[in-house]
Amino acid sequence: xxxxxxxxxxxxxxxxxxxxxxxxxxxxxxxxxxxxxxxxxxxxxxxxxxxxxxxxxxxxxxxxxxxxxxxxxxxxxxxxxxxxxxxxxxxxxxxxxxxxxxxxxxxxxxxxxxxxxxxxxxxxxxxxxxxxxxxxxxxxxxxxxxxxxxxxxxxxxxxxxxxxxxxxxxxxxxxxxxxxxxxxxxxxxxxxxxxxxxxxxxxxxxxxxxxxxxxxxxxxxxxxxxxxxxxxxxxxxxxxxxxxxxxxxxxxxxxxxxxxxxxxxxxxxxxxxxxxxxxxxxxxxxxxxxxxxxxxxxxxxxxxxxxxxxxxxxxxxxxxxxxxxxxxxxxxxxxxxxxxxxxxxxxxxxxxxxxxxxxxxxxxxxxxxxxxxxxxxxxxxxxxxxxxxxxxxxxxxxxxxxxxxxxxxxxxxxxxxxxxxxxxxxxxxxxxxxxxxxxxxxxxxxxxxxxxxxxxxxxxxxxxxxxxxxxxxxxxxx
Length: 478
Prior knowledge:
Radius of gyration: 51 Å
Strand content: 15-25%
Largest sheet: 6 strands, mixed
Low-confidence stretches: 418-427, 467-478
């Protein structure tokens, strides 16, 4: 349980954190100047006090030597002590019997101390001492004849007090001036930050991501502005990608949804009229239901691919070291089960890569599915995986009609389908997903014409540093 003493620093910390940067800089500047003035004041006072005391001691010693010389000539009891003029030094003569003599009218001095008595008895030559009385006396005792003489002075603090008052006034002036200067400097230095904050607020309120923030200032300010402009550019690209995805999705969903709706409306209308059996023979009804199933399956596939693209990342799975040959074999096995009439011929070597197995398998499966749509029934889809230098090279080769030169630049675009492919099932997203997976793994996807006249889709991925190659194997899957 926290005590009130613990809560107070926390409350002060919260208060400080709530202050603006301008206020903090002002307080810091004023505090720094106040501390500097205080330290300078302390040093000046100490130096002045030391200098005044040193001067007073020298004066007392000089006066004591003169008085001691007169006392030795005339005797301690007969030495002349002029009346006290009302100000200045105080003198006293200590006789051998311990009694004292002082000038007429002079204020009383503190009693002779034990140490001063020892000087008068000859146990010590001289003594400089100060008293703790109301009047701070500085007394110098000097041996003279059979006794001693004393010269005293009152510590004069008037000059120190005057210096302290002057330093205090100067300090207050410096603190106030420092606070004003600090605030002005903070306002000038933070002006780009204020404009940056205003621009950010304007973007947040207007949602206008096209307005870049002017590049001004220097150092950290310029770097911050450039970072925010880069962020705005990324947001613009993201919003454009979202809009294009929504537009493409709406366009692609329109055709299967329209066909599905018309077929369902036809069945409902005939059922309401009670003419379903007579209007649609068994064969037609079966064909219609098969069409509905195919359209639902197409919509499900399209929705899954759209979801995969809209996530923005390849997968939530972590990266691991894996043998790409295992991924290719698993994808080919799945493709063969989905396309039993298509033959998949594998020629794969063991090549180790760092990647996400599920995402890579999805990409390989899409490549094989795409090739299977075009490959003739008597020609297999050839899948080859080999290590070339520091790369793992995957090639998917079909014996179809190939890809026209005009379509090559857009093969990996989302929803793009060549004119010759519009009659075939598919959403136009498969190769786009391949491109995204390959990019996320630091690879490259390209398309060319195969030696058999069809399309040759090639994927280059960075091989792991510990790549281990085994002898290639030829596998035919049906």
